[in-house]
Amino acid sequence: MKATRQRGATTLSRRWFLRGSGLAAMSAAVGASIPFAHLLPKGLLPIALADSAEQLQLPGKPGLTVFSDRPINAETPAHLLDDPVTPASRLFVRNNGVPPVTYDLDPLDWELSVEGEACTNPRAFTLRELQERFRHYTLQLQLECAGNGRAEFYPATSGNQWGNGAVGCPEWTGVRLKDVLAECGVADNAVYVAYEAADSHLSGDSSKRPISRGVPLHKALESESMLVWAMNGAPLPELHGYPLRMLCAGWPASVSGKWLTRILVRDRVHDGEKMLGQSYRVPCKPVAPGTTVADADMCIIESMPVKSLITFPKSGVQHALADTLQLRGHAWAGDRRVQSVHTSLDFGASWQTAKLKKPVNRLAWQHWTADVSFPEAGYYEVWARAVDEAGASQPVVLPGWNPLGYLNNACHRIAVMVNA
Ligand SMILES: Nc1nc2c(c(=O)[nH]1)N[C@H]1C(S)=C(S)[C@@H](COP(=O)(O)O)O[C@H]1N2
Ligand SMILES: [Mo]
Questions:
Q1: CB of 43 closer than 6 A to ligand 1?
Q2: pTM for the complete prediction?
Q3: Is residue 145 within 6 Å of ligand 1 at its C-beta?
Q4: Is the pLDDT of residue 333 over 70?
Q5: pLDDT, tens only, 258-287
Q6: Is the CB of 142 under 6 A from ligand 1?
Q7: Of the ligands numbered here, which is closest to the C-alpha atom of 71?
Q8: Domains plus CATH for the chain?
Q9: Does the Cβ of 254 fall within 6 Å of ligand 1?
Q10: Which of 228, 242, 277, 315 lies at a C-alpha separation of 20 to 30 Å from 87?
């Protein structure tokens, strides 16, 4: 079921949303008692709320645009991504299945096992043991769904029609994946490190997994690849993987497994759910829009491409001609650094170089600002374009079309009405 609308949601607690409890709140929102409420599957929104006239709001995520509630998918409008470090309330949500019920457990008892054909010393850790045994690190790391920007592709491709808000850069705390792997033994024939998680398949079939992806060994062994239990100094929110998730920033966020239960050290490219076929793959060679591409000609997406956002002002702003407009935003480039950001007021005919900060740490997004003034009153578009350290630029219009609409890193544009 696709639920896009809900009334009165702001009065509901976010715990209710995930737990299917909080009966009083739910009944109040529906306007009647719900005799079978105890049988309502967790995470499912009553259709009476879903079908009402207002935009669905995710409790705890005011202002996010919600695409669906089963699974939960919601993106953040660009102007709400203005914070240097993305707060939990403004981080997009991308679920492929139904999150596990975790509220009644002691998070420190959560178990992670590390195993796989190419693991020489398989073992399990509780979260408590992970925290006691390994050194802690805190890093700002950006997460972007590979399908961010999909809505702009033509012909349209299937999947969530993300605008440009399936991205964020919170601060995460945890341990390095490589420290844990060192203790568990990585065999010489290891090539891939994958995750399995505790969420369940939408069909309810417990033999199926919603998603199980991973990264080549070299990416897993980077210092920024982590197992995290905290976001912005607080326990991971339920929607973002509480109590433990993997994080390999700069790659499709689908490699950053939430509700992490198992790490697999594989002797082959991982073949879990959403690794094969067309998922998270693009044609190895460019194709004409609309082309059907055989699975064998599709390559796994690795580092995400260079991209930027204008987070201030909000598109549609009214601005006085006499004033300078101070633009702000962020830029990021997968595994690479952003080298420069440029803005244009004349549909790309000329560009002005913005002020760009260094990342706080590798794989954090970078902040940029630019002061612009307008020659006369009227309608303008401000465009922003980032270039990475290898010289790759965002395309002004669209990058290459691909069957599932991944990797749209086209320039972000906002409308500005300049008044005399
Ligand atoms: N266990 C699990 N991990 C997951 C997913 C999921 O559905 N289940 N979705 C992935 C995808 S496709 C994305 S884009 C990110 C989204 O992370 P977020 O919801 O914390 O923003 O989580 C990834 N990790
Ligand atoms: Mo994603």
A1: no
A2: 0.89
A3: yes
A4: yes
A5: 999 999 999 999 999 999 999 999 999 999
A6: no
A7: 1
A8: 107-146+164-300 (3.90.420.10), 307-419 (2.60.40.650)
A9: yes
A10: 315
pLDDT at 59: 86
Closest ligand (CA of 260): 1
- In ligand 1, the atom with minimum distance to the C-alpha of 147 is 14
Give the mean model confidence (pLDDT) for residues 378-402: 96
Q: Model confidence over 310-321: pLDDT tens digits?
A: 999 999 999 999
- CB neighbourhood size of 283 (10 A): 17
Phi, psi of 252 (to 5 degrees): -50, 135
| DSSP bridge pairs for 215 | 193
Q: Which two tokens stand for residue 214?
A: 């991973």
Rounded average pLDDT over 222-234: 98
Paired with 368 in beta bridges are 329, 356
Ligand nearest to the CA of 239: 1
